[in-house]
UniProtKB/TrEMBL annotation:
Originating species: Methylomonas defluvii
Protein name (Swiss-Prot/TrEMBL): HisA/HisF-related TIM barrel protein
Phylogenetic placement of the source organism: Bacteria, Pseudomonadati, Pseudomonadota, Gammaproteobacteria, Methylococcales
Pathway assigned in UniProt: Amino-acid biosynthesis
Family matches, as PANTHER family: 1-(5-PHOSPHORIBOSYL)-5-[(5-PHOSPHORIBOSYLAMINO)METHYLIDENEAMINO] IMIDAZOLE-4-CARBOXAMIDE ISOMERASE (PTHR43090:SF2)
Keywords: Amino-acid biosynthesis, Histidine biosynthesis
The keyword tRNA processing is assigned to this record: no
Origin: domain of life: Bacteria
Family: Belongs to the HisA/HisF family.
The keyword Amino-acid biosynthesis is annotated on this UniProt entry: yes
C-alpha cells in the first residue's frame, strides 16, 4: 500500500486542511513538527527528508474554488522533481484537461465536486476523486451511481474527516473495495496512526493520502517503512 503526502495550496502557501472548511485553513508550518515554512518547495523537501515518497498529491484550492491558481509554483515543482509523480487536482473539467498539455510527471485528478455532469473516464489515465462531505457525494450523483464511467484509480475523499483525527470512513471504503475489486481505491481523510493504515490495507485499499498524521508526527519514518 502506497503512502502519498498531500500538498494543499491556498493563497500562495501550503495549508493545513481540516474539516473541509477552506476559509479557515492555516499555513501548514504553524502545526507541523517537520517543517518551519509553508512555501511549497520547502514543504516538499521536508517531507522527502522524512521519507523518500515517490508520489505527491497536490490540491490547488484557489483553482478549485475559482479564486486564482498556483500554476507557476506547481510547474516549478514539477521541473525541480522530474523523478517524482504528482497527482494534481485544480478543479479542471475533463474537457479542459483533454485540451491541455501536461508534464510527463503529472497525473490530473478529476474531482466530482468540480464537475457538472459525469463523463466516461474508463479508458483514460486520469484519476477520479469521489468527493464526499457529511456522507453526501459532492457534485453530480451520477458519478457514484455509474461505476462503468470510473477509471482504474479512484480517490475516496471524505472532506469532513480531513484533519479531523476521527479515523477514515472504513464502512464506505470497505464497501467500495468489496463491490469493485477491479478498481484501485485510495483513502483520503481521517487517518490517525499506523493502526488505521493497517486496517485500510486489510480491507484492500491500495494507497492512502496523508497530511496531518505526517506533520504532527503520529506516523513517522519507521512506520512508513512498513508499507
Amino acid at each position: 500500500m502506497q503512502i502519498i503526502p498531500v500538498i494543499d495550496l491556498k493563497d500562495g502557501l501550503v495549508v493545513h486542511a481540516a474539516g473541509g472548511d477552506r476559509s479557515r485553513y492555516q499555513p501548514v508550518h504553524l502545526n507541523s513538527s517537520i517543517c518551519d515554512s509553508s512555501e511549497i518547495s520547502q514543504v516538499v523537501t521536508s517531507l522527502l527528508t522524512l521519507y523518500p515518497f515517490p508520489k505527491f498529491y497536490i490540491a490547488d484550492l484557489d483553482a478549485i474554488t475559482g479564486q486564482g491558481n498556483h500554476d507557476e509554483a506547481i510547474d516549478n515543482l514539477f521541473s525541480q522533481s522530474p523523478n517524482k509523480e504528482f497527482w494534481l487536482d485544480k478543479g479542471s473539467s475533463y474537457q479542459a484537461l483533454a485540451a491541455t498539455n501536461r508534464g510527463i510527471n503529472c497525473k490530473p485528478v478529476i474531482g466530482t465536486e468540480s464537475q457538472r455532469l459525469p463523463v466516461s473516464l474508463k479508458n483514460t489515465d486520469l484519476i477520479l476523486s469521489l468527493d464526499f462531505k457529511y456522507n453526501q457525494v459532492l457534485g453530480h450523483p451520477g458519478w457514484l451511481e455509474s461505476p462503468e464511467l470510473w477509471p482504474k484509480t479512484i480517490v475516496v475523499m471524505t472532506l469532513d474527516l480531513v484533519g479531523s483525527n476521527k479515523g477514515p470512513d472504513f464502512a464506505k471504503l470497505s464497501r467500495l473495495c468489496k463491490d469493485h475489486p477491479d478498481k484501485h481505491f485510495v483513502a483520503a481523510g481521517g487517518v490517525r496512526d499506523v493502526n488505521d493504515l493497517m486496517r485500510l490495507k486489510t480491507i484492500g485499499i491500495t494507497a492512502v493520502l496523508l497530511a496531518s498524521a505526517l506533520h504532527n508526527g503520529s506516523i513517522d519514518a519507521a512506520m512508513l517503512e512498513k508499507f
